[in-house]
């Protein structure tokens, strides 16, 4: 039996991918009736993502302080996305259409079904 949930694999990619995918997720969750009460508002997500964009731009110009600031902004976006993912997984209850509407990519988990032994199979 398969179960669907959101994928966080993009968080392991480059900052540009994280910015792009996170922006898509924030946009997808705006006024999405399947997810009316996200832990981080889409506007809050937009603010964190915009800050990360600014810090990434400064980090590309160099400097240890700029890179540290970028890493801090990246950690904030990562944390926010993980909170959103947990909420989306819970609120969608494995409903594929609801999950797709969130903007996240999907991950398929194989669920193992336990078959209990009976007297006849022992």
Structure description:
The protein has 122 residues and is mainly alpha-helical. It has four helices and two strands. A two-stranded antiparallel sheet has the order 1-2. The model has no long low-confidence stretch (mean pLDDT 89).
What is the end-to-end distance? 25 Å
| Fraction of residues in β-strands | 5-15%
Query: Strand order of the main beta sheet, please?
Result: 1-2
Number of strands: 2
Roughly what is the average pLDDT, rounded to an integer? 89
Low-confidence stretches: none
Instruction: Please outline the major beta sheet.
Output: 2 strands, antiparallel
Tally of DSSP helical segments: 4
Q: Which properties best describe this structure?
A:
122 residues, mainly alpha, two-stranded antiparallel ribbon, 4 helices, 57% helix, 8% strand
Would you spell out the secondary-structure blueprint of this structure?
Layout (H helix, E strand, L loop, with lengths): L1 E5 L8 H15 L12 H19 L3 H29 L3 H6 L4 E5 L12
Antiparallel strand pairs: 1-2
Helix pairs in contact: 1-2, 2-3
């Amino acid at each position: 039996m398969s179960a669907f949930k959101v994928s966080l694999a993009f968080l392991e990619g480059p900052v540009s991918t994280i910015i792009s995918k996170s922006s898509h997720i924030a946009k997808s969750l705006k006024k999405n009736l399947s997810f009316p009460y996200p832990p981080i508002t889409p506007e809050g997500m937009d603010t964190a993502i915009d800050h990360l964009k600014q810090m990434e731009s400064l980090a590309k110009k160099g400097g240890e302080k700029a890179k540290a600031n970028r890493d801090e902004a990246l950690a904030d976006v990562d944390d926010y996305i993980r909170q959103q993912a947990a909420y989306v997984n819970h609120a969608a209850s494995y409903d594929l259409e609801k999950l797709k509407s969130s903007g996240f990519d999907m991950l398929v988990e194989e669920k193992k079904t336990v078959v209990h032994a009976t007297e006849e199979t022992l």
